[in-house]
Design brief:
about 50% helix; 11 helices; Conserved hypothetical protein from pyrococcus furiosus pfu- 392566-001, ParB domain; two-stranded antiparallel sheet
């Protein structure tokens, strides 16, 4: 690492980065301090090829440019854009100021564009693996929900709950429920739990049909019991019904007599 004095206009600022947040009062005090005593802490930069890229100290650089300073002190290391981004993340982490929206963008850029793995991001930034994974997870939210996260209308906890829904329609439906009903995190978590339970109940398979004993119905003519599919319903008048009853009764008597007759015996003996 080298200490140099350079023209602040030659320092390039990455489009995707983390910038520390200041309250309005702190920002005014910082601006007044720069005007009175200048910048007493070097701005951190990386030399990538032939260009100087800012990794930490954007507020100092902004004030240097605003006050027309011709030279500023910087520390310089040779590296890559991955080095610039990782150092920027680490600096924000050490200062305890890391806007979720900006953290998400930088980590997503490292992972998807520069193909830096989660373990390497964790090692080079000091973040936990779970935190890195969570920020990558919320990066998959719809633009509407991501905008709400970036604008701090929802927090990381709400965003993670919404990220469980891979269907964009589901994500935004529950997002609007949270916003319109002014749910806090515990209430929103309970709402989703009840919603998922209701959906699971609807999707549950119907109970298996219970087996019933075969229904038998007596024939009006012969008196024997038969399954329903073996019965026929024929409309008859009273006279015909009487004839049928008689004919069936006669046939049944003859059948019983035939059963009681011994083969080879002479009738009447």
């Amino acid at each position: 690492m080298k200490l140099r004095r350079v023209d602040p206009r030659k320092i390039r600022i990455p489009e995707v980065r983390v910038t520390a947040r200041m309250s309005e009062e702190t920002a005014e005090q910082f601006k007044s301090s720069v005007k009175e005593v200048g910048i007493d802490e070097p701005i951190k930069c990386y030399l990538v090829g032939e260009e100087l890229w800012l990794s930490d100290g954007k507020h100092r650089l902004d004030e240097a440019l605003a006050n027309g300073l011709e030279l500023v002190d910087i520390t310089v290391r040779e590296g890559t854009m991955v080095d610039v981004m990782c150092n920027n993340l680490m600096s924000g982490h050490l200062r305890g100021k890391h806007p979720i929206s900006e953290m998400r963008r930088v980590i997503s850029e490292l992972f998807t564009v520069h193909h830096v793995g989660i373990e390497e991001i964790r090692r080079r930034t000091g973040y936990t693996q779970a935190y890195v994974e969570n920020l990558l997870l919320v990066s998959e939210l719809t633009p509407l929900v991501l905008a709400a996260l970036d604008e701090e209308r929802i927090g990381l906890g709400i965003a993670l709950l919404l990220a469980k829904f891979k269907d964009p329609v589901e994500q935004e439906k529950h997002f609007w429920m949270k916003v319109n009903c002014h749910m806090d995190l515990p209430t929103f978590r309970q709402y989703l739990k009840e919603y998922e339970a209701a959906i699971a109940a609807q999707a549950a398979p119907p109970p298996a049909p219970t087996e019933r004993p075969l229904a038998l119905i007596k024939c009006a003519y012969c008196g024997d019991a038969h399954p329903l599919e073996e019965l026929a319903s024929i409309i008859t008048c009273h006279a015909c019904a009487g004839i049928l009853y008689g004919a069936i009764a006669q046939g049944q008597r003859e059948a019983r007599q035939d059963e009681n007759t011994v083969p080879g015996a002479t009738p009447g003996t």
